[in-house]
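User: My collaborator sent over this chain with a note saying "see what the structure looks like." That's all I know about it. Can you take a look?
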Amino acid sequence: MKHAVVVGIDGSAQSAAAAGWAAEEARRTGRSLRMVHVVHAEGGDFARAGRPADGLPRSVAEIRDRISALLPELGTTCEQVPGTPAYALAAAGERDGLLVLGSRGLGGVTGLLVGSVGLRTAAHARCPVVLVRDGAGGTAAERSEVLVGVQGDRPCDAVLAFAFDQAARRGAVLRAVEARTTPAGARTGLRLRWTSRRSRGR
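Assistant: Without extra context I'll predict from the sequence alone. Here is the result:
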């Protein structure tokens, strides 16, 4: 963890939930909050699309203003950058060490709708990526479960350590999920292996 908690916002309800979680996490850990709104741009389109402060879309500015009003003591910045959302957000998270995004999750793995941007960003990011579901209720400190994805054939000690820390701080259940593609010739699809344990006291 480095300088700030980074959250991607696009004005949606999902990104508003992510901003709320990120703000609470920043307050709890004594870090600043960095909001990033990515605009697809080619050539001069970015200059017309908006400027870092006063050119933000109204829905994005409303999220920024709401967070600033709720936590005025929090060092909050909001910037608008050009590029492809997945790559721009992954780069922002890598610089600061933690990236928070909204998710259209419906609960459970079968209902998890991450969204194309969230999925691609998580795949490219070299830092922990937290996906926050809109409507999950509560603050960052009140979540009852932390879900972490692992890949058995790749080092994941840092990711697991981060997940254990987050679950322990919240007294939450830590659920680790590994998804595997079945061998050629077998049934296609993903096989899920679940491990669930209380992180308290570990």
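A starting point for your reply to your collaborator: Confidence is low (pLDDT under 50) at residues 43-53, 106-113, 137-141, 188-202.
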